[in-house]
Amino acid sequence: MIAERHHVAAKVIATVDDLERIAADDEADVPALAGWRRELFGEKALALKHGNLALAIEKGRVAAVERR
Hints:
This protein is of the alpha+beta class. The chain has one domain. The chain has four helices and two strands. Strands 1-2 form a two-stranded antiparallel sheet. The chain is globular. The two termini are about 20 Å apart. The mean pLDDT is about 95.
């Protein structure tokens, strides 16, 4: 969803290894949690992990929905 919106390849934002390390550790030393990648994806990934963000289908597309 993020990669498509910003016209970048998903693997440039986060690799499978990055995702696994983020799942295990909120402070994983991975590119997805630093710089522009954190702004585009990392913060949302952590919010999703902690239940503060949900994914839903809206008008046939995946959408992020804040949960507080």
